[in-house]
Amino acid sequence: MVDIDKDVIKICKEYLPEYHAGAFDDKRSKVYSTDARKWLAESKDKFDVIIIDLTEPVEKGPAYLLYTKEFYQIVKNKLTKDGVISVQSGCASYTELLNLKAVNHT
């Protein structure tokens, strides 16, 4: 798991135990508090699954570069031959459709 905000990880560990169900403490888990795009681009590993939970694409915000063709090329290059990607990019409410549209067009 890679998240840019270590406070989010800390809060999830403390206040959402029913959601993580101890996954943070599992010896198979690795948690990195850094920029996910940069981490993925620099990783030497290939992945069977990449799950992306995007925040809104606020211009110059931390997730802005996760809505680019270059980012999805990085993701594609890091997947194994039969690898898959799952992207959560906001809810499908009318006000959030621009997020879904941005991902679809990318």
Describe this protein with a few key phrases:
106 residues, alpha/beta, two-stranded parallel ribbon, 5 helices
Strand content: 15-25%
User: Termini separation (Å)?
Assistant: 23 Å
Order of helices and strands: EHHEHEHEH
β-strand number: 4
Walk me through this protein's architecture.
The protein is of the alpha/beta class and 106 residues long. Helix content is 38%, strand content 20%. It contains five helices and four strands, in the order E-H-H-E-H-E-H-E-H. The chain has helices spanning 6-15, 17-20, 36-42, 69-78, 97-105, and strands at residues 2-3, 32-33, 47-53, 79-88. The strands form two sheets. The chain has a two-stranded parallel ribbon with strand order 1-2. The chain is globular, with a radius of gyration of 15 Å. It starts with a strand and ends with a helix. 5% of the residues are buried. The mean pLDDT is 87.
Task: Give the helix/strand layout.
Blueprint: E1 2-3, H1 6-15, H2 17-20, E2 32-33, H3 36-42, E3 47-53, H4 69-78, E4 79-88, H5 97-105
Parallel strand pairs: 1-2, 3-4
Task: Give a summary of the structure in a few sentences.
With about 110 residues, the chain is α/β, with parallel strands linked by helices. The protein is about 40% helix and about 20% strand.
